UniProtKB/TrEMBL annotation:
Protein name: Acyl-CoA thioesterase
Alphabetized CDD domains for the sequence: 4HBT
Native source species: Falsiroseomonas selenitidurans
Signal sequence interval, chain numbering: none
Pfam families hit by this protein: 4HBT_2
């Protein structure tokens, strides 16, 4: 398997959404390096912010009121450089595919211009009560497609 070439922050689409996070003491192993599962928790938090700020969909209402889940069906990461305690990072989700009941994101994590890691996430939309996959709701589909278009136009 070949490793991806790090992408500088400036190479991301200019209209892409960026969430920010600070690496805290509790996010790190004894060497002061981000413990790898913490990146997935930060990614989920960034996606929650992305839903509200960029897609105009209340992430919590989607789950709690509408009972539509957006869990990862697949998640992988390529680590390019360690994240360190005290780092300020930008997490940038880009929509790569919109399917029937799932969509895929590539999430870039940067410290300034340096890409620290790149995640490939496939999210399945599910009926939380029936615990089965359901089609992506029309408002979410439209918002994802619009964002994907804005990023492609940049």
């Amino acid at each position: 398997m070949s490793r991806p070439t790090p992408l500088p922050f400036a190479a991301l689409p200019t209209r892409a959404f960026h969430a920010t996070a600070r690496v805290r003491f509790g996010d790190c192993d004894p060497a002061g390096i981000v413990f790898f599962p913490v990146w997935f928790a930060m990614a989920n938090a960034a996606i929650e912010d992305f839903f509200g700020a960029e897609l105009g969909i209340d992430f919590h209402a989607l789950h709690a009121t509408r009972r539509i889940g957006t869990g990862f069906a697949h998640a992988e990461a390529d680590f390019m450089a360690p994240g360190l305690m005290g780092d300020q990072v930008a997490l940038t989700p880009l929509v790569t595919r919109i399917g029937g009941a799932s969509y895929a994101l590539t999430l870039h994590v940067h410290r300034a211009e340096a890409e620290l890691l790149r995640m490939h996430l496939v999210t399945a939309t599910t009926d939380l009560d029936a615990r089965r996959a359901v089609p992506i709701p029309p408002d979410l589909r439209a918002a994802l497609a619009a964002y994907q278009g804005r990023c492609a136009d940049a």
